[in-house]
Design goal:
Strand content: 5-15%
CATH architecture of the largest domain: Up-down Bundle
Order of helices and strands: EHEHEEHHHHHHHH
GO molecular function: glutathione transferase activity
Number of strands: 4
Distance between the termini: 34 Å
Catalytic activity: RX + glutathione = an S-substituted glutathione + a halide anion + H(+)
Function: Is involved in the conjugation of reduced glutathione to a wide number of exogenous and endogenous hydrophobic electrophiles.
Keywords: Cytoplasm, Transferase
Structural class: alpha+beta
Radius of gyration: 17 Å
CATH topology of the largest domain: Glutathione S-transferase Yfyf (Class Pi), Chain A, domain 2
Subcellular location: Cytoplasm, Cytosol
Strand order of the largest sheet: 2-1-3-4
Number of domains: 2
């Protein structure tokens, strides 16, 4: 990777979608960094010190200063490494606001629905699955509007919203394999299904995606 330097470190956990979100951003921007894997059952002193409020990954430490929360880190990467690679956020202020809105929608609606569908009670799981389907249908429409007929939410190249949503693809594929389903069904969500294929095929994405078989084993053990 071209940019960055020895003063940039990321604390993450290989199966965490939030941590993957940051790794995707760094990879797409071409920023070099040191990666440190965290054991979330035995968190390091560095993690506890760097994120004393939530004690969660990811944390990006730049010049000794920690930046926490994945979406905030994405924006920090864009600003701190403006001279490296292409910006994730659009140049137009309105388009930036739209991208931020949909990224927040992903976290507040889709991620919460996926968590409920995976870890809730039987009744909660069914409700969670409905929420996931509804959120994805909404994002299908958002992709139609944002992409303007191009492969990514960011247009011709993957950007902020692609990364915000793309970090969930590994878990989507794992659930597909475990449950024998197709969450992003091309027959009902053709744009998102095509987007997922295009995003997953990027070299920068493949370089940091977790191994699917390992992730399936991890999910089955939870």
């Amino acid at each position: 990777m071209a940019g960055g330097g020895g003063d940039l470190k990321m604390l993450g956990m290989w199966a965490s979608p939030a941590a993957l979100r940051v790794r995707l951003a760094l990879s797409l921007r071409g920023v070099s960094y040191e990666y440190e894997e965290e054991d979330l059952k035995n968190k390091s002193d560095l993690l506890l010190k760097s994120n004393p409020v939530h004690n969660k990954v990811p944390v990006l430490i730049h010049g000794g200063k920690p930046v926490c929360e994945s979406l905030a880190i994405l924006e920090y990467i864009d600003e701190a490494f403006a001279g490296v690679g292409s910006s994730l956020l659009p140049a137009d202020p309105y388009e930036r606001a739209v991208a931020r809105f949909w990224a927040a929608f992903v976290d507040e609606t889709l991620v919460k629905g996926m968590y409920q569908a995976s870890w809730g009670t039987t009744e909660e799981k069914e409700d969670g699955k409905k929420k996931v389907t509804a959120a994805l249908e909404t994002l299908e429409g958002a992709l139609r509007e944002c992409s303007k007929g191009k492969p990514f939410f960011g247009g011709d190249s993957a950007g902020y919203l692609d990364v915000a949503l793309g970090c969930l693809l590994a878990w989507v594929h794992a659930v597909d394999a475990i449950q024998g389903v197709k969450i992003l069904d091309p027959s009902t969500m053709p744009l998102l299904a095509a987007w997922a294929d295009s995003f997953g095929a990027l070299d920068e994405v493949e370089a940091v995606m977790p191994d699917l078989n390992r992730l399936i084993e991890f999910v089955m053990e939870q």
